From TrEMBL:
Organism: Pseudohoeflea suaedae
Keyword terms: Hydrolase, Protease
Function description: Involved in the modulation of the specificity of the ClpAP-mediated ATP-dependent protein degradation.
Family statement: Belongs to the ClpS family.
Pfam families: ClpS
Protein's name according to its UniProt entry: ATP-dependent Clp protease adapter protein ClpS
Transferase as UniProt keyword: no
One of the record's GO molecular function terms: peptidase activity
Amino acid sequence: MSDKDTGLAPRLKSKPKVEKPKLYKVILLNDDYTPREFVVMVLKAVFRLSADVSQRVMMTAHRMGSCVIVVCTRDVAETKAKEANDLAKQAGFPLMLATEPEE
Ligand code: TYC
């Protein structure tokens, strides 16, 4: 008896009902003027990183030119980057955080 006859054959690969959200990186960019302590303060306040992790992330950006802080949904990434960029602007520092889609 073939599948056609019984009508009981399982449907082939149905489309997943919930799409995986695309993920975005929040990237810390180095500059020559923002004080290290200010960068660490922003990482602790906006991203809730520990003092130790904030220091490491800041030093990685300082040495390498940039450092990924977190990977999250687009909405969260853009909100956090804006919060941090606004703090820097208010304080008069050129610190910049950018977002970019993850490959
Ligand atoms: N390079 C800055 C300095 O020497 C410190 C710094 C680190 C600035 C990381 C931005 O993303 C940054 N004062």
